[in-house]
Each structure stands twice: as C-alpha cells, then as structure tokens.
Amino acid sequence: MSEGLVGRFQRTMTAAAAAPSKASLIRINVVFLALFFTVYVALILRPPSSVVESYRVSPLVRCSSRECQSQGKGDTGVKMKVVLEEAGDDQGHMRAGRRNREKIETPSFLKDIIGETTMTKIGVMNMDEDDLSEWGSYGETIPIRFDRVSELFEWKDLFPEWIDEEEESDVPLCPEIPFPDFDGYPEMDLIVAKLPCKYPETGWNRDLFRLQVHLAAARMAVEKGKKKHDDGNGNGSSGRRTVKVVVLSKCRPMPEILRCDDLERKKDDWWYYEVDVARLEQKVSLPVGSCRLALPLWGQGINEVYDLSDILSATKTVRREAYATVLHSSESYVCGAIALARSLLATGTKRDLVLLMDASISQPKQDALAAAGWRLRLISRIRNPKAERRSYNEYNYSKFRLWQLTDYHKIIFIDADILVLRNLDLLFHFPQMSAVGNDNSIFNSGIMVLEPSNCTFKLLMSSRDEIVSYNGGDQGYLNEIFVWWHRLPRRVNFLKNYWSNTTAERSVKDQLFGSDPPKLYGIHYLGWKPWLCYRDYDCNWDVEDNRVYASDVAHARWWRFADEAMDDGLRALCGLTLQRRTELNWERRKARLMKFADGHWKINVTDPRRLKTNLVS
Ligand SMILES: *[C@@H]1O[C@H](CO)[C@@H](O)[C@H](O)[C@H]1NC(C)=O
Ligand SMILES: *[C@@H]1O[C@H](CO)[C@@H](O)[C@H](O)[C@H]1NC(C)=O
Ligand SMILES: *[C@@H]1O[C@H](CO)[C@@H](O)[C@H](O)[C@H]1NC(C)=O
Ligand SMILES: *[C@@H]1O[C@H](CO)[C@@H](O)[C@H](O)[C@H]1NC(C)=O
Ligand SMILES: *[C@@H]1O[C@H](CO)[C@@H](O)[C@H](O)[C@H]1NC(C)=O
C-alpha cells in the first residue's frame, strides 16, 4: 500500500516536469493500453478451473451468460434463459422448482399508463417468458437481450480506491459492462425491467448485476423510449421530456438512476416512473463507475478547458444553483464558514451562497456570517439514532437538510473546513452524486454535487434506523444511499493529510498546497482546524494521532488568505476560547515532554490570540 503510494508521488513528481508532447504520448498510450486491456479482460474472464467445474454440474443455474457462451452454448435462447434463471434466484425463488414459482401479475395500473392505443411497443428486460404472457394483450412485447456482467467482476473494479487521475503512466479505463445493442431496437412506448435484489444480504446495494440492469434500462429509455413533452399544460411546447419506465423490484430502485421524483405509481413490487430524459441522459453519458474521472484533467490540470458537450443537459433553461454549507451543534466552525464564503466569492462566482444553521449560532455570529456573504437559513438539526448521546457526531445527519433546498435545482455542498482556491462553477454541470474518492469505494462527503428533492430527503430520513454508517457520520451514511457516484478530480477537494509519511509525499503535497497561482481547487483541512490553532504553526504536530494531518504550508496558506480577505470585524470571530487555549497549551506541553522530533513545540508563539484580553467567549 505505502509502496504504491510512493510510486504515485514519484509519478506526480516526474509529471511536474512533463515533456511538451504529452498529448501524442497519451494517444500512443491509449492504443497500447487498449490492447493490453483486451488481453487482460480476456484473462480475467476465463474462470479458474474450480469455478468451471461447478458450472458443468448445472450450467443453466450457475453460469453467467458469458461463461455459458464460452462453453459453446452461445445461442441467444440459452443465454436469455440463464439470465432469467439467475434473476429468479435473486428474487428468492426456488432454484429448481421453476414451475412452482408464482406467476408475476402485470401491475394493476398498466391500463392507465398505456392508454387506449392499440399499437403499443413494450420493451422487456430480464423478464421470464411465463411472466410475459399477460403483457401480450397490452401490446407487442420486445425482449431486450444483453450478456450478464461477469460474476468475476466486483464492485471495486468499477469503483476502485485510486485511479491515475493525472494520466502520468496510465489512462484510467473501466471494465466492460455488456449492454444491449441499442441500434437493433425500434422506438418503444414503455420499458419494463425486472431488477435483481439480494436484500437483505449484506452488500445487496453494491451488486453489479443490479447496477447493470438499471443502467441497461436507463440507456434504453434514453435511446429508444418514446419521448413525450410534458409541461403540465399539455401544449407540448416546453417543459421536460419524459419516457415511461416500469420496474419490478422487491427493494427500492437505485435513487441515483431512477429518481424518486419521477415515480408516478407504486403497487406491490411494481414501480412506474415517468423519467426526465434530460437528467437521465446526462447521467448515462458519464463513465459507468468511478473507475474514470467524470471531469478529466487535461493539460497540467490547471488551464484546461473542459468539453461540456457530452454532459450539458438538453434544456437551456436558466437553473437556480447555489453553494451551501451546514453549521450545527456549536459555533466552532463559524470562522471556517466565514473564510469559506470569502474564498468562494474571491473565485468570482455569481451563484448564491446558502448556509444552513441550527439554533446554536448566536446573533452576532449570524451577522458576521451574513456579512461574509452567506444567505442564512435556520434548520432544526437531525439526530443519528444510532449515535451515542452527546457524542461529537450525534447530529451529523443535519447535512440531509441540504436536500430540502428545493428552490434550487442543484447544490454544491462544501464543508466549512475547506478553503476554495479556484472557481468551482464547472461542477454545476455534473449530476448527483459527484464527489472526490476517499478510500475503498467510498466518496468523501466534504464536497458533493447534489440535487435537492423532498422525496430524496424523505428517503434519507426514513432509512436512519436501518442503515449503519461505517464511521458514524454523514459520509458513511450517504455512501450507502448513493453507491453509484461520479469521480471528481482529487484537486477539487484535496485532503490535508500524509498517509505514507515519506519525504516524497511531503514534498509533492506541500508543493500543491503552496502553489501560487493555485493548482488545487480546494484544500480540506482535516484534523485540528487552522483557526483552532495558534497561527504560528499547525497544532496537529503536537498531537500524536493527528500528526498525519500536520502541514505548515497548508496552515500558513489558510492564515494568509484570512489576513487578506477578512476585515477586523470578521477576524474577530476567529478568536480562541479559554477552553481551546487551555487545550492548545496542554498539547504543546505534552509534545515538549515527549520531545517530539519535529520540534514545533519549540516555536515561540507570537499569535496575539493567545493573550487573555483577546480570548472570546
Ligand atoms: C403553452 O402554455 C404556456 C403556459 O400556459 C403558455 O404561456 C404558452 O403560450 C403555451 N404555448 C403554446 C404554443 O400554446
Ligand atoms: C418541498 O417541501 C416543502 C415543505 O416541506 C415545500 O415548501 C416545497 O415547495 C417542496 N418542494 C417541492 C419542489 O415540491
Ligand atoms: C461530524 O461533524 C463534525 C462537525 O461538522 C466533524 O468535525 C466530524 O468530522 C464529523 N464526523 C464524522 C464522522 O463525519
Ligand atoms: C514518520 O516518519 C518519521 C521519520 O521518518 C518517524 O520518526 C515517525 O515515527 C513517522 N510517523 C509515523 C506516524 O509513522
Ligand atoms: C523565544 O522567546 C524567548 C524569550 O522571549 C527567547 O529567549 C528565545 O530565544 C526565543 N526562542 C526562539 C526559538 O526564538
């Protein structure tokens, strides 16, 4: 792990002195990598012998269509059956007793959504032939075929922990997910899909086959669904375009793909959506996982012009968009939120800045926040029912209130401990959920592109008793709801920490933290926040467990910005409390007693905030 990291930093370093003909190099690399990847995929897909063994016992039940094909049973009839059989399993039906299975009734609302037209074309995906008999009376059913994604792929192949974002030695590529041959199908009035569901098995929400059926249905809807203009007036001249999608699913469909806002009817396990085509089109045009950047860094990642043609939504309507942050439970982040607002405004953005706060923020602090540029909204904080009483993250679910900002079409949420260095408006072109990778297949919730929606908020609230957040915070929770996310470059939300504790890592990251004009879009101050230290040095040095977060360069950058961007009135909000000063001095003393080798505890503190007369309440 640390070796890999060192390699990465060395690569980053060599790239800093990259040759001018980088573009052509990348092109050659792409060709080689494509070749290499084809061979690689072919190797990966060949099942190990023990797996083949079990397939032979009962190929119709166990093998995925891909392996069946390689065993010479590649005609579509068999392939389709295999997929159906497997899907039956997922629904919890008996493996052998297919005939015992209850036939699935068509949804009772079908007549209403199809209307009186006689020539209805219904595309059906992942459905059993038996289940289709009734559908025939509603129109012509068109089975949609595709190979099932290999069982040998795992979620982490699509959502890897790390990718070579800067394309120094690699062009990130994604594993192939088979999709239908869209061109081979006619336009369809309705698309029907049976979604696999392994709930309540652990990991049911990170099931590749489930994702595949979702995406296949979504892409089919975008490409072949008959589009209807719907402006609520029925005059067809403006408003959103919709297509009809019906899914059969025991667990809730993925909200990242099928938005709850588009859900028109729900009966038993049937869900009927009138899907907003523009939004869906944008989502399916992005890479299928976080295995590639949704926003590629071109050039040196500093003066690139991003080609938005792929992701610009079809509508030209001016949208309401805002940056937002959340303060709750205490005033300790007020100073950070002030610096954040000033840093956002310094990038020249014209978007609204919205701050959600609970009743813990006093009137003078509210005035200062408003003076810094925030539009304030009072919220009541949200408890994590699984958190311990009075724990530091008991109310971290308050972030869910962002989804209630429904007077905005899109929100870029930014944690109050982030300093923005470059304009982030580009991110408004990305759909929910777009974020920077954290670890494993998890995104960091410090900067998120999200789409406010009352029903999404309801979903977040209603799952609180069920979902366990891996870290007790909102990040762990949101990652269980939005498992399908889009990777933004790390430079957008660059974490202030040094995992590997090597000089190579230090020198690369310090160069990034310090560069002027900035190369980073945002620095995320993990550990003790700059405004809770003396300005003389990063006080994370004095705490054993926090030393991975200690960076004098990043610390100095925050203070330099605060000095330039805040007047005395705002800066007065960044004073130390007596309690915090006591903690700081205590940690400094401990570091001295333990003689920490970095010697930061030796530095004479000159920060006037240390003086008793300057302490704040
Ligand atoms: C469509 O309806 C809207 C709202 O009632 C109206 O302003 C517009 O003129 C109508 N367009 C047409 C072409 O009738
Ligand atoms: C969301 O709910 C709030 C009230 O809880 C309501 O004022 C608002 O209009 C709703 N937004 C939408 C888009 O329906
Ligand atoms: C909870 O929120 C606090 C304050 O916003 C933050 O410092 C902390 O890291 C969060 N905890 C988790 C586990 O997300
Ligand atoms: C980091 O490296 C230094 C010197 O290389 C060493 O003294 C220190 O213990 C390391 N810290 C951690 C947390 O591994
Ligand atoms: C810190 O201040 C003390 C007294 O003012 C002085 O004697 C000492 O040399 C200073 N130390 C450093 C490292 O500047």
Proportion in helices: 25-40%
Averaged pLDDT, please? Answer: 82
Number of helices: 19
In total, how many domains does the architecture comprise?
4
Query: Which percent range describes the beta-strand content?
Result: 5-15%
The total count of strands amounts to: 17
Q: What small-molecule ligands were found?
A: 2-acetamido-2-deoxy-beta-D-glucopyranose
CATH superfamily of the largest domain, please? Spore Coat Polysaccharide Biosynthesis Protein SpsA, Chain A
Strand count, sense and barrel status of the largest sheet are: 7 strands, mixed
CATH top-level class of the largest domain? Alpha Beta
Poorly predicted runs are: 1-26, 35-99, 299-305
| Quaternary structure annotation | single chain
The CATH architecture category of the largest domain equals Alpha-Beta Complex
Describe this structure in words.
This protein is α/β, with parallel strands linked by helices. The chain has 4 domains: 2-45; 46-100, no CATH class; 103-145 and 180-292, Rossmann fold, CATH 3.40.50; 318-495, Alpha-Beta Complex (Spore Coat Polysaccharide Biosynthesis Protein SpsA, Chain A), CATH 3.90.550. The chain is built from 19 helices and 17 strands. The chain has helices at residues 2-16, 22-45, 49-57, 59-62, 65-70, 76-90, 110-114, 129-132, 155-158, 208-224, 277-284, 334-346, 363-372, 454-462, 474-481, 503-514, 552-565, 568-571, 578-593; strands at residues 121-125, 140-144, 190-194, 228-230, 240-248, 263-267, 270-276, 321-327, 352-357, 375-378, 410-414, 418-420, 434-437, 443-450, 486-487, 494-495, 522-524. Strands 1, 2, 3, 4, 5, 6 and 7 form a 7-stranded mixed beta sheet that branches. A 7-stranded mixed beta sheet has the order 10-9-8-11-14-13-15, sandwiched between helices. A hairpin with a 2-residue loop joins strand 6 (263-267) and strand 7 (270-276). Helix 12 (334-346) runs parallel beside helix 13 (363-372). The chain is elongated and about 85 Å long. The relative contact order is 0.08. The structure holds 2-acetamido-2-deoxy-beta-D-glucopyranose (NAG) (5 copies). The site of one 2-acetamido-2-deoxy-beta-D-glucopyranose has 3 residues, from loops.
